[in-house]
Specification:
Blueprint lengths: L1 H24 L7 H12 L3 H9 L2 H8 L9 H18 L8 H21 L6 H21 L5 H8 L3 H11 L5 H5 L18 H17 L5 H11 L9 H8 L3 H16 L2 H6 L7
Helix pairs in contact: 2-3, 3-5, 4-5, 4-6, 5-6, 7-8, 7-9, 8-9, 12-14, 13-14
């Protein structure tokens, strides 16, 4: 009875603290995109006050991301604390030159910090540094193969990719998969499972932002072309589906012959070459 009373008292105290915290973070206004970029510029100039303002304006984002990961033995306050560490890391690395909202960039770092915390928490035994490195290598291979094969890779697939025995991979999997509370897996609106606790090392937000920035900037240069020329260049070098189209494919889409498309492409690239210095300064359109 005493233990039950203590637990209820602790839970009540946590709820009170959480209510106060939520009330405090709501006092910080959300930022416009222009304000985020301005703060990012100041951060890169070494302004610590700008980091603080960028973080405080996005504390509600951490709360939103952390809520689905709450379980019977993982209080929301603990998850918020870990998520805030990810938010601070994102605030220091966010680049105002990339035309992306800060919340889009920060979400990945927040989630990674929370998942790393949960992964370490679920493990009964803390592993030596070398074992942790092996597990990270396994995780990276797991996610790479998942993307390449378009399905969850089997242990044998991972063993073949790493050039190790199946027995060793099974050993790593047993070490890596800690006990996951059933409440977390089956809770309403939560589809978490063991795969969610594999930290994804194959995704890099900086690379994605870099690619998006280059694509957006390149499209701006295409405004110098006629509409038909612009279409051809986009199909050839900046397709929405990520797969460059052949002259024949573009011809079918635009109801023109492949030779006509080729002539339009040559004419468009010739126009862009007049701005070669400016375009290459941004590292754009390798074709010219």
């Amino acid at each position: 009875m005493k233990n039950t009373a203590k637990t209820e008292g602790r839970n009540s105290e946590n709820r009170d603290i959480l209510s106060i915290y939520i009330g405090q973070i709501k006092m910080h206004p959300l930022l416009a995109f222009s304000e985020e970029k301005e703060l990012s510029y100041l951060v890169q100039q070494g302004d610590k006050g700008a980091i603080d303002k960028l973080v405080k304006a996005n504390l509600r984002l951490v709360l939103k991301i952390a809520r689905p990961y709450v379980s019977y033995d993982t209080p929301l306050l603990d998850l918020i604390q870990e998520g805030n560490l990810g938010l601070m890391h994102a605030a220091k690395k966010y680049d105002y030159k990339r035309n992306v909202r800060f919340c889009t960039y920060a979400s990945w770092w927040i989630r990674q910090h929370i998942l790393r915390y949960l992964s370490n928490k679920q493990r009964f035994v803390k592993l030596p540094h070398r074992k942790e490195q092996i597990i990270r290598k396994y995780q990276k291979t797991y996610h790479t193969l998942s993307q390449n094969l378009m399905h969850q890779p089997k242990a044998k697939d991972i063993a073949d990719e790493l050039g190790v025995s199946l027995k060793e991979i099974n050993y790593i999997i047993n070490f890596n998969t800690g006990p996951i509370p059933l409440e977390l897996v089956l809770s309403k609106g939560n589809s978490a499972n063991a795969i969610d606790f594999h930290e994804d090392y194959t995704y890099n937000p900086e690379i994605n932002l870099f690619k998006k920035y280059h694509r957006d900037t390149t499209i701006q240069f295409l405004d110098k072309l006629k509409e038909r020329e612009k279409q051809v260049i986009k199909y050839r070098f900046l397709p929405d589906d990520g797969k460059p189209h052949t002259l024949k494919e573009i011809g079918k889409k635009m109801r023109l012959s492949a030779e006509t498309i080729r002539q339009i492409e040559l004419k468009a690239l010739a126009k862009l070459r007049n701005h070669k210095g400016e375009i290459r300064k941004h590292g754009l359109l390798q074709a010219i």
